[in-house]
Amino acid sequence: MLTNSAAGLASALSVAGSAERKSLLAAFDGALVRLQADASLSRADRLMALVARVQLAQLDAPGKDKPSATPAALRAEVRDMAVRFDREITDGYERQAVITTAAWALEQAGLMEDSDALLKANLAKSHSPYYLMADLADNAKKRGDKAAALDWNAQAFDKSEGPATRLQWGARYLGMLIELAPQDAQRVERVAAQLFDEAAAMPDAFEARSGRSLQRIGGHLSGWAKGGAHGDAMKRLQRQLDEVCAKLPAGESRRLCDGVLKPGSSA
Question: Which of 149, 198, 203, 261 could bond 141 through an S-S bridge, CB–CB 3.0 to 4.6 Å?
Answer without folding.
Answer: 149
